[in-house]
Amino acid sequence: MSRRSFLARSAALGAGAYPAMLALNLLPAAPAHAFDLQPGSGQGKHIIILGAGLAGMTAAYELTKLGYRCTILEARTRTGGRCWSIRNGTAAAETTNAAQTAHFDNGLYFNAGPSRIPHHHQLTMHYCKELGVPLEVYNNVNENTYYYAEGKGPLSNKKVRAREVHNDMRGYMSELLAKAVDQHQVNTGLTTEDADKVLEYLRAEGGLDIDKLYKASARRGYLEAPGAGEKAGKLANPHKLVDIISSGLLDPDFYNVAEYSYELQMTMFQAAGGMDQIAKALEKRVAASLQLGAEVTAIQNQPEGVKVIYKDQKGTHELLGDLCICTLPLPVLSNVNHNFSADVSRAIDFVPYIQTGKIGLQFKRRFWEEDEQIFGGITHTNNELTQIFYPSYDYLSKKGILLGYYNFNEKAKKVGDLTYAERQQLALQKGALIHPQYPTEFEQAFSVSWQKQPYSLGGWALYGADDRKTHYRALLKPDKNVYFAGEHTTYLTAWMAGAFESARSVTAAVHSRLSDQHTIYPTTGTN
Amino acid sequence: MSRRSFLARSAALGAGAYPAMLALNLLPAAPAHAFDLQPGSGQGKHIIILGAGLAGMTAAYELTKLGYRCTILEARTRTGGRCWSIRNGTAAAETTNAAQTAHFDNGLYFNAGPSRIPHHHQLTMHYCKELGVPLEVYNNVNENTYYYAEGKGPLSNKKVRAREVHNDMRGYMSELLAKAVDQHQVNTGLTTEDADKVLEYLRAEGGLDIDKLYKASARRGYLEAPGAGEKAGKLANPHKLVDIISSGLLDPDFYNVAEYSYELQMTMFQAAGGMDQIAKALEKRVAASLQLGAEVTAIQNQPEGVKVIYKDQKGTHELLGDLCICTLPLPVLSNVNHNFSADVSRAIDFVPYIQTGKIGLQFKRRFWEEDEQIFGGITHTNNELTQIFYPSYDYLSKKGILLGYYNFNEKAKKVGDLTYAERQQLALQKGALIHPQYPTEFEQAFSVSWQKQPYSLGGWALYGADDRKTHYRALLKPDKNVYFAGEHTTYLTAWMAGAFESARSVTAAVHSRLSDQHTIYPTTGTN
């Protein structure tokens, strides 16, 4: 295989092959994620794309490049789907709540859907670059945020800085293990010399003293900061291990959200000015194909092609296409008439979606920065709020919107079942336990409950291991002339990368089927 | 004590008292770090300030507000001292190397001196805000950078992603400790119930499986990334613990630089456009007091006031002042005539300064981002380079400058003793072991060896515990009419915060002495 064909193939495969390329030291001369399919004889054929989220618009964008005629039907009067930023004037209703309108100050926003881009989601990064969407760091890791446990332990109902818990736990665990290794209480399987190196590592990792004990450590911050002259800084004693435990700070409420996970490791990015800038940039490229306010009511495979019935302000319409790409979230698709196979139908009806919600709270002062030196990052709590996200933009400016909660599952269901006013009240009341500045500084709120958003009806697909073998697989093949795409057709559920990867995958499949060009990737050519 | 007087006192004390204020829930109505000294009868008195670094300029800025007449003598033809960004046209000589000029592209720069602002350095943040210097996140933590050990182990002479070492070590250590706790091989002093919670914590912390064993984990990245369709992602096996050890990846070369330290924990910031923007903003405020190109040769305490002798292009001059604030780095001051006390004189001559150097390498392509998905952060190596810093600005743009090395002590001495060309050659040769793109993409270099920079002669003061009791204390009191300031008069050596804190401290001391206002902080007043 020539270098060029290797690269072309890798690009077509998406991000997955990239580490392999690096391993082979095949550093690309062309942009890493150029999608170089060659136009074929399918040009002019009509592809109906359902949903103008990132997956649908990306598929339309790529297929249009290849000469296909695309129509995107989007039920909402906006594009982007879950890639949605709430700003002044944003108006939306929920299934059980009437429309609300956001009254945030100009320039302020929050991302109701995806808010973070991992650096290794290369297709997301690629499209931001290709579409000219500027990125900025999303500061996901911040040791100065809080753990706040409602409960009965001595550290409960207090805000404890993340750095205190992190370093105390590392310290105590390293001390315990160092003792066990030192006294040969645990079999490391190492030589004495290597065990000594592990001991030195534990001392460094845990911030232990010369006797390998964990005592006061600057890593967990100061009672009184060091400064000029005689101000050497005053350290506090670590929290007691039993206090950390009995206050619930080791509970899954806190440790299931570890920033160790691959997707949440720094470096992370966000689109400057709101994640919806990605959707808006795509929208510009596919404007000619786009029909907003067009709600699909039926999808019918025909002997040749596909028929889609949709309604808009003018009435009900039929649209005929050669092929269809359906990116509708499964709970939405479940309410659409179709003649799909039993396997596909079951997948549509039975794959569960996460319940999740966010509230944006605008404050007239960035007290979390001014008073508490919290710049970005996440405070974790075991109450309904689950997480408070501090904004990673406009640091040190006057006003700001923070995410008053970002919760999931049972907690999100409970909060989602409230009215907007009740959600706001809950966010303010529980938030004030952590930030007493809330009552005096609060200005505006806007909440989103994804399971109640028409045309979404959930956060993202939640596959169990069994579902991946059954329902998931059913959606990977086309049902006759209908292809499925969207985050739910990937192993990157919940991420924008899932939309992009699925769009590429479905584009390649559609093109391969409609084009007479049997060899998509030329294997000849100069290198 | 009234709330207002508490706040005024806290502000004067600097950042140290701030956590206490928070603890007392005294959230300030006024800006946290307003420096509200009241003008006194000292107005118009003449303060001679030696050095136009951040400490000297900040002292002049604050004293001028109080009505003093300041003269800043600065030997260099620029302000900022070690707060220095290298950009196109920057020209400078070293003590043993003739002048070099930087030929970087416009808009590209690197910070030769301080490059990071911890979020808890509140005075630094305060002055950036007050002076209108925009800040942006300095992305100090990046799990996608490398560990590169020159050596003989199986992981030597290879680039290993930081996330692999971090997660493998957390995994192995958690597994070992979980085993010891589970089998009661180590005395935790905990109840069974609490020990079970620790076991669950270890499972979460180490990414252990259900049997509390560390196996393949997505936290350490994928061999093949997950994607659309059947691409579930392929995990690699962890590195073997013995391989990590024998390859030197637990050596202090790697673990002394832990990002766990309080000063290097995220969130970190940098001044947008170069750290010298802070110096330039201060320079504007003190321009009327500033004499550049004025090299001090003698400082003489007089029965009344102080006499400073300096030379400039026009010749030698005498300047008389009521008081003097000397911010010259000690190795520089050591070459100036003075009539200080024996204690002060010894401190000036004997406090060691760190040897440290950086090289900025401009590349025509940001290959570390495009090919290797490294956005900011630091690669660590045990060779002379010590660290490679990737830029935290202009992500995804065309060109970039990375720090080819940032080293200290013996390694910095060795590299500093080379010519500019030899340093460049070393940086390129060693750097190419990690980034084979170096030879084809390299364009320009500029290196700085701080111990060879005239008027600096070192990186920062390196006090041992004993020095803090003797030499350090000698510099905290004025020597008759001469006060000392700069990072070397603080417990924040090496940080810009040291300059700011010392400037405030010396301003308060000078003002207290010259003003007839015995109570600086009014204890009456409305709250």
TrEMBL record, chains A, B:
Pfam families named in the record: Amino_oxidase
Pathway as given in its UniProt record: Plant hormone metabolism; auxin biosynthesis
InterPro entries in UniProt: Amino_oxidase, FAD/NAD-bd_sf, Flavin_monoamine_oxidase, TAT_signal
Protein's UniProt keywords contain Protein biosynthesis: no
Enzyme Commission code: 1.13.12.3
Keywords per UniProt: Auxin biosynthesis, Signal
GO-annotated biological processes: amino acid catabolic process; auxin biosynthetic process
Signal peptide: 1-34
Catalytic activity reported: L-tryptophan + O2 = indole-3-acetamide + CO2 + H2O
PROSITE patterns: TAT
UniProt domain Amine oxidase: residue ranges: 54-510
Family recorded in the similarity comment: Belongs to the tryptophan 2-monooxygenase family.
Protein name as it appears in the record: Tryptophan 2-monooxygenase
The species this protein was found in: Hymenobacter ginkgonis
